[in-house]
């Protein structure tokens, strides 16, 4: 990657000569982690293991202020490093000592510690910061949604910079303690478990903990007035759901859907293996948006998801992401199919279980919905481009690819792949090529042609069955019947 801060020519030479030889190799960390779609997202030179956020938020004014303490380790001899933050920093300390800092680019906060950090050094960073997140426009927008009684941070891929400084890329996961004080009578929702809640001087402080590695965009914060329901799963995990008190006509449908979280998670466990995190839930704030997001352990749902009545399918989608997206995360954003193709396919499996159409029937329907000249087929789910990262094709053609895999390898091996993959890469990152290799290993079949057809060719494959031809075996009536009753077999 191009390092924009190296001084050119003679000046650089003079600078090198002027500093002691022992420090000459210390260089700034890159301003991006190296994602081809988003070159400035995340940062180079260090790895964060833990975020401790101690915050205060006033809904009346939208003022968010606080202190972030990051525990990190340098991955190179580091003279300086970047954090990603949209709010204004007032003080930065590294290992307790005041550090110089300046803003650069859209979201970069360049931090120069008093002393260089040799490669492999654990270090702490304390950032004091404040601002009104809805006023902060990065890349021309804010990811902080105001509500009548508070605000919400939930978006993808850009969300963290509106509420905490970070190495903002899924490749650098960490654990989180989020402590936030809000006016008495207001609640604050975040990921994981509520460790404690207490009130003094008119402010109630909520202490949330997310104890497994979590990508920055999967960290969430919602402040407002909520109805909160709590329960415990059959396995003893806490379930915390929260609904804005202001959902109006959507309230019943929202609750009728999200209250089924534990049931859906139990069903998903039968397909994907043990639930990977320590808590479950979901929250529905009174936001104007229409999307939902797989924020870790506690998905975000816009009320519009429930405008037509209950929508358990979206709960299935966001909970499936806990395995496919949250525990196993993209290595680069171009790997988004690993998240969305499988979350969509999970909705098809739910439909199959509920008797509302098998995955094969939904695949045939989806294929038929898009004629050959539909631009839908020009988007390559395996490398859609940043502008098409969340295009319908990533989801629907992405799910067609998974159905093609199922037809090619048969029920037993297909479900072995689905269950084995989240375990293989638990709490880590992976790319599409890793999945192809894994599916080939488990199935014992060459699948390069199938995935090339379904994920990488900008044209409509001839037909699902034809696309699977290179690896297809003759399918007996018995196999077809098995396809349609998979849940009896699993
Ligand atoms: Zn999704």
Account of the 3D structure:
The chain has 490 residues and is α+β, with helices and mostly antiparallel strands. It contains 13 helices and 23 strands. It has helices at residues 9-18, 251-258, 261-272, 312-320, 337-354, 359-369, 392-409, 411-424, 432-443, 448-456, 464-467, 477-483, 486-489; strands at residues 27-28, 46-58, 63-74, 78-84, 88-94, 97-98, 100-104, 108-112, 122-131, 144-147, 150-153, 174-183, 187-189, 193-200, 203-214, 221-224, 226-232, 238-244, 280-284, 292-293, 300-301, 328-330, 428-430. The strands form six sheets. An eight-stranded mixed sheet has the order 6-5-9-3-2-12-15-14, with no helix packed on it. Strands 1-4-8-7 form a four-stranded mixed sheet, with no helix packed on it. Helix 5 crosses helix 7 (392-409), helix 6 crosses helix 7 (392-409) and helix 7 packs antiparallel against helix 10 (448-456). The longest helix is centred in the last third of the chain and has 18 residues, at 337-354. The protein starts with 8 loop residues before the first helix and ends with a helix. Mean pLDDT is 92; it is low at 1-21 and 466-490. Bound molecules: zinc ion (ZN). Residues 294, 317, 321, 339-340, 343 line the site of zinc ion.
Q: Give a quick account of the main beta sheet: strands, pairing sense, barrel closure.
A: 8 strands, mixed
| Low-confidence region ranges | 1-21, 466-490
Q: How many distinct helices?
A: 13
Q: How much is the radius of gyration in Å?
A: 24 Å
Structural class: alpha+beta
The proportion of residues in beta strands is: 25-35%
Q: Write out the distinct hetero groups bound to the structure.
A: zinc ion
């Amino acid at each position: 990657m191009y390092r924009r801060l190296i001084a050119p020519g003679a000046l650089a030479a003079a600078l090198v000569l002027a500093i002691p030889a022992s420090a000459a190799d210390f260089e700034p960390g890159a301003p991006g982690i190296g994602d081809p779609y988003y070159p400035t997202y995340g940062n180079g030179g260090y790895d964060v293991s833990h975020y401790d956020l101690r915050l205060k938020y006033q809904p009346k004014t939208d003022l968010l202020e606080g202190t972030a303490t990051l525990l990190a380790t340098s991955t190179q001899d580091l003279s300086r490093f970047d954090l990603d933050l949209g709010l204004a920093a007032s003080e930065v300390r590294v290992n307790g000592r005041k550090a110089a800092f300046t803003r650069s680019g859209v979201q970069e906060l360049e931090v120069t510690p008093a002393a260089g950090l040799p490669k492999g050094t654990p270090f702490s960073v304390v950032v004091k910061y404040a601002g009104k997140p809805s006023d902060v426009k990065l890349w021309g927008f804010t990811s902080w949604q105001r509500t009548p009684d508070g605000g919400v941070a939930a978006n993808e891929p850009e969300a963290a910079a509106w509420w905490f400084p970070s190495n903002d890329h899924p490749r650098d996961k960490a654990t989180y303690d989020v402590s936030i004080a809000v006016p008495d009578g207001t609640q604050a929702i975040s990921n994981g478990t509520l460790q404690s809640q207490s009130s003094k001087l008119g402010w109630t402080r909520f202490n949330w903990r997310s104890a497994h590695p979590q990508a920055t965009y999967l960290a969430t914060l919602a402040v407002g007035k909520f109805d909160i329901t709590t329960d415990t799963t059959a396995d003893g995990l806490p379930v915390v759901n929260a609904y804005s008190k202001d959902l109006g006509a959507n309230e019943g449908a929202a609750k009728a859907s999200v209250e089924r979280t534990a049931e859906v998670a139990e069903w998903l466990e039968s397909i994907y293996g043990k639930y990977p995190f320590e808590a479950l839930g979901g929250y529905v704030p009174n936001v104007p948006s229409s999307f939902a997001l797989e924020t870790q352990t506690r998905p975000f749902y816009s009320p519009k998801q429930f405008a037509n009545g209950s929508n358990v399918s979206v709960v299935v989608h966001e909970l499936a992401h806990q395995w496919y997206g949250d525990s196993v995360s993209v290595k680069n954003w171009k790997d988004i199919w690993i998240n969305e193709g499988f979350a969509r396919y999970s909705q098809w499996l739910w439909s199959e279980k509920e008797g509302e159409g098998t995955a094969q029937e939904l695949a045939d329907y989806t294929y038929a919905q898009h004629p050959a000249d539909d631009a839908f087929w020009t988007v390559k789910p395996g490398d859609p481009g940043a502008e098409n990262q969340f295009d319908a094709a990533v989801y629907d053609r992405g799910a067609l690819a998974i159905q093609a895999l199922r037809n090619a390898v048969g029920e037993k091996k297909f479900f072995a792949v689905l269950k084995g993959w989240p375990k293989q890469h638990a709490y880590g990152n992976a790319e599409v090529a890793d999945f192809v290799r894994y599916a080939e290993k488990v199935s014992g079949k060459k699948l390069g042609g199938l995935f090339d057809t379904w994920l990488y060719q900008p044209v409509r494959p001839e037909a699902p069955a034809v696309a699977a031809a290179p690896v297809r075996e003759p399918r007996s009536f018995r196999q077809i019947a098995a396809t349609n009753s998979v849940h009896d077999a699993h």
